[in-house]
Amino acid sequence: MTLPILAYGHPVLRKKTDEINANYPDLTRLLDSMWETMYNAHGVGLAAPQIGLAIRLFIVDASPFADNPDLDDNEKEAIKNFKKVFINPEITDYHGEMIDFNEGCLSIPNIRGEVLREDKITMTYYDANFNRHEIHLNGLASRVVQHEYDHIEGKLFTDKLSSFKKKVLKSKLSQIEKGNIKVDYPMQFPVKNKSKF
Questions:
Q1: Assessment of whether the complete model's pTM goes beyond 0.90
Q2: 88 falls in which pLDDT band (50, 70, 90)?
Q3: Of 78, 115, 124, 189, which sits with the fewest C-beta atoms within 10 Å of its C-beta?
Q4: What fold characterizes domain 5-192?
């Protein structure tokens, strides 16, 4: 089932989330709905807070980046099958050089910005079957995961933009909050009784 994605300004997007366990109700159905919602919106990642759940869960399918002509063959190969469920993830180490990349977000449509992030991370997480993993990521895989991880920490990519860029975007962000935008996927806006498709 395709779910509405919460828009910028919704309080759930600013909550630090809670861990879940293997008995979380209807987890399989929730994950199916998250995949369907993400693909319907042409995203490469979706975190539970974006659909109104303050839990430590996100999904990633970075394969669309494999078509990026700016990537070398090694990175294309690494990213083309990078599809994962992350439950109760914890980034244990950030390292590598700081890299700039133009990011966007399904909760903040039609806005993009250059975001600096460390190129490499180490993290632990549980998969959909609650098997524990430790993973080392770099390049775009690392970036996509860090972006989604920020969501479960109550942070947005716009928080990482320069003060000047934030001022420039202030009115656009306000319009998103009010629901004064056009998107081709279901969204839920913080302003009461507003929902657009």
A1: yes
A2: very high
A3: 124
A4: Peptide Deformylase (3.90.45)
